[in-house]
Amino acid sequence: MDEMRAGRLVRAIREEIADLLQRGIKDPRVGFVSITDVELSSDQRVAKVFCSVFGSDEDKRRALEGLRSATGFMRSAVARRIRLRHAPELVFALDESIERGVRVVDMINKLTVARGDEPEKKPEGQEPPAKPD
To answer: Does the structure show a pLDDT above 60 at 107?
Structure first.
C-alpha cells in the first residue's frame, strides 16, 4: 500500500473513532477521551489507537476498559463508515506524552526560577486584573 493511501486511511480511522466516542459510545467509563494518534501496521490488520484521558489514574484505567469493551462495535462501525472490506483490529493504548511534556516544562520552569535566571511567568490569560489608580 502506498504511503498516501495509508495516511488517508489512518486519518479516516482516527476521525471515525473520535466521532464514535462523541456520538456512539454510551459507556459511562469512557468520559474525557481524545484520540491523539493511530498507527496502522504494514499489512493493515492492526490499528493501534493512542488516546489521552483526562482524569486520575483510576479514570484512565476505567476509560481504557470501556474502550476495550467497545472494540468490536467500533471496529465494525469504522469498517462500515469507511467502506473497508476487512476492518483492522483496534488496539487501544494510553498516550501519556502530553502529560509527560507538561511535567518536563514544569520542571524546566522550576529549575529556571531556582537558578534565578528568569522570573516565573504565568500562563496567558491568568494574570490578575490591574488595580485602578
So the answer is: yes
User: Is the sign of the CA dihedral 95, 99, 104, 105 positive or negative?
Assistant: positive
pLDDT grade for 1, boundaries at 50, 70 and 90 = low
Alpha helices in the chain (DSSP H): 3-23, 57-69, 71-82, 97-115
Sign of CA dihedral 66, 67, 72, 78: positive
Q: Which residues are paired to 53 by β-bridges?
A: 33
CA dist 42 and 53 (Å) reads 27
Task: Kindly state the DSSP code that residue 16 receives in the 8-state scheme.
Answer: H
What pLDDT digit, counting tens, does each position of 48-70 carry? 999 988 888 888 899 999 999 99
The 10 Å CB-count burial string (b at 16+, else e) for 38-73 is: bebeeeeeebebbbbbeeeeeebebbbebbeebeee
CATH no., domain 3-115 = 3.30.300.20
Euclidean distance between CA atoms 66 and 2, whole angstroms: 33
